[in-house]
Inverse folding.
């Protein structure tokens, strides 16, 4: 089980992105709120001044002419109607405007209008109570005409100042828009520059570990399982991935080493088991032959056979080694053939032609002997005539080539196909041949070439090719 590394003091990529967004959005939000607040305040002022101007525009522009004319008709006796409604409307309008006036000039003008309306009303009542045409005309000219003119002038003055206030507000608003745009552009440039730098740094902190992990995976895929320091990364998950990958490589190395040792042990055990199965098989046959020689009175041949058997087992023991040189294997096979020739001297002739260049080439012990034994019992013995058994070796382009050829009865195509199939499926009755093939395959694997050719009444040829090896593999 792979342990998950403990993560401390680091933040994930998503947290960093959220922090970056907050850092970049904060100044923009502050600037936006500030500009919107200023626009809101100036909009309120602008709306108030506009409302004042709209209200003031309700003032009767013919106020002076109408009031003066009605008072003239009243003084001359042409009419009894006094212009009190006009004066009251002007007073109410001034009362409304005085509560919303902002500048001192506007406040002074509308206050003057309010006072003059009160004075005008008093003058109207005074003329009403005055008798005599001349005195009324005098009051009309010295009071009424003057006051109505002042009221109209002060109302226009109010409108003038309010319009000026409106123009000033518009100008300040334009300045505010310009300054806001400049500030926004400056902040946006700063934010973009900062975001680019932070984004590049953040991107590098992500892509660099990923590139290193990708390279490490390629190395592992190509067979490089040597331990290396984990990939450094700021992100917790990437760092955990790098540490987990290296821990996996370490455990894989350990497991591969355990598997290798186990394979070596199993191959060695299998090799020893196969050889243990072969040795009694040959020994029983040889002892049976010696017994037969003694029983038939052929003591000299029995002594020769015992001597050859002694040489055979000395070479077989090989100081306990399972892998021997081809020179030692040739000596072993020669001893075996000498033993067999005592039994089959009327039908068996043999030749050994070994290439000296392959004397140090290593093969599993008892590789050739089962092939020779198989040739004697299944090829030469059934023929009922003298047959030649030839064992040879030759070095071809870095490959060692062994050949066991006999001139025995051979096999037809059906038997040959069955034998080849038994080797491929690791099954069959030819235990010696199968055992030799299995031991060679354990040592050389797919590099081994094991070829059997045969024709009925023309003999059999077994050809073995494998890499020339001078160091023990097992």
């Amino acid at each position: 089980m792979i342990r998950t590394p403990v993560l401390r003091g680091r933040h994930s990529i998503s947290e960093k992105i959220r922090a970056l967004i907050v850092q970049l959005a904060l100044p923009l939000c502050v600037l936006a709120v500030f500009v919107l607040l200023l626009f809101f305040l100036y909009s309120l002022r602008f709306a108030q001044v506009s409302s004042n101007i709209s209200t003031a525009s309700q003032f009767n522009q013919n106020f002076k002419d109408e009031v003066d004319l009605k008072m003239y008709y009243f003084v001359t006796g042409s009419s009894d109607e006094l212009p009190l409604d006009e004066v009251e409307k002007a007073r109410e309008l001034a009362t409304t405007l005085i509560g919303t006036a902002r500048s001192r000039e506007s406040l002074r003008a509308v206050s003057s209008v309010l006072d003059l309306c009160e004075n005008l009303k008093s003058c109207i009542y005074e003329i009403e109570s005055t008798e005599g045409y001349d005195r009324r005309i005098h009051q009309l000219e010295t009071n009424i005409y003057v006051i109505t003119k002042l009221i109209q002038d002060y109302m226009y003055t109010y409108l003038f100042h309010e319009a000026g206030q409106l123009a000033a507000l518009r100008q300040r608003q334009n300045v505010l828009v310009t300054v806001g745009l400049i500030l926004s552009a400056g902040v946006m440039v700063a934010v973009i520059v900062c975001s680019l730098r932070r984004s590049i740094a953040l991107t590098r902190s992500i892509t660099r570990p990923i590139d290193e992990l990708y390279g490490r995976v390629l190395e592992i895929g190509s067979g490089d399982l040597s331990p290396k320091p984990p990939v450094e990364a700021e992100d917790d998950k990437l760092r955990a991935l790098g540490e987990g990958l290296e821990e996996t490589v370490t455990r894989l190395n350990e497991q591969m080493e355990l598997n290798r040792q186990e394979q070596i042990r199993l191959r060695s055990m299998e090799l020893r088991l196969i050889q243990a199965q072969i040795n009694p098989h040959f020994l029983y046959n040889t002892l049976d032959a010696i017994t037969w020689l003694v029983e038939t009175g052929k003591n000299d041949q029995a002594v020769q056979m015992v001597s050859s058997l002694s040489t055979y087992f000395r070479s077989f023991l090989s100081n306990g080694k399972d892998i021997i040189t081809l020179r030692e294997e040739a000596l072993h096979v020669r001893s075996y053939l000498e033993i067999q020739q005592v039994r089959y001297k009327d039908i068996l002739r043999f030749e050994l032609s070994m290439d000296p260049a392959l004397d140090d080439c290593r093969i599993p012990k008892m590789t050739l002997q089962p092939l020779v034994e198989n040739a004697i019992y299944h090829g030469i013995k059934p023929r009922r005539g003298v047959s030649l058994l030839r064992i040879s070796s030759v070095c071809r382009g870095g490959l060692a080539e062994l050949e066991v050829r006999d001139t025995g009865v051979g096999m037809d195509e059906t038997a040959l196909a069955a034998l080849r199939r038994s080797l491929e499926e690791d099954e069959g009755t030819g235990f010696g041949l199968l055992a030799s093939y299995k031991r060679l395959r354990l040592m050389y694997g797919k590099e081994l070439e094991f070829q059997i050719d045969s024709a009925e009444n023309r003999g059999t040829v077994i050809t073995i090719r494998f890499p020339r090896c001078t160091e023990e593999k097992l």
